[in-house]
Write a structure and sequence with these properties.
single chain, mainly alpha, 2 domains
């Protein structure tokens, strides 16, 4: 196999040979969804800890991992609690003064907009989950298209993380 970079993984971790991007994608999956440490990922993939560290940094895997920890439902729940607490505080004022200050009104507006955004847009975790399912479905049908799509999805997720 001259000219091709092939890595072998430890027995029991994955039975097939993996090439460049496939190995990187597997490492990413282990780090982000399985929540393994960089050292554990290195051990499972047969790559050095330095390489895994480089991949984590370049691909912003830590940020992706964190975004998957806080679900959209948890974020929405917190925002609704904050909004409720703010409204309760306003309603506890004396009759005739039960209206928000400009600062409270601004906070209510920001919370309402954030809630609307979270309720209408897919989270990074949602995108990753759907993408994984799509790629799992596509790989047996057309591995080349699956590989190309995986790169496009990675770029899309990286762009979404910047927002």
């Amino acid at each position: 196999m001259r000219g091709q970079k092939v890595s072998f993984v430890k027995k029991g971790t994955m039975s097939a040979e993996l090439k460049g991007n496939q190995l990187k994608e597997w490492a990413k999956l282990l780090f982000v969804t399985e929540r393994l440490s960089q050292k554990e990922v290195a051990e499972k993939t047969g790559k050095s800890t330095v390489t895994i560290c480089k991949w984590v940094k370049e691909g912003e895997w830590e940020r992706l991992k964190q975004s998957m920890l806080v679900t959209r439902e948890a974020q929405l729940s917190r925002m609704y609690l904050q909004l409720d607490e703010l409204n309760t505080s306003i309603m506890s004022k004396a009759e005739g003064t039960r209206f928000p200050t400009s600062k409270e009104a601004d906070t209510i507006s920001k919370l309402a907009n954030a809630i609307k955004t979270l309720e209408s847009e897919a989270s990074i975790a949602d995108i990753v989950e759907v993408s994984k399912r799509l790629l799992s479905w596509l790989r047996p049908i057309d591995p080349t298209k699956a590989k190309d799509l995986a790169m496009i999805i990675d770029d899309f997720i990286k762009e979404a993380l910047k927002k």
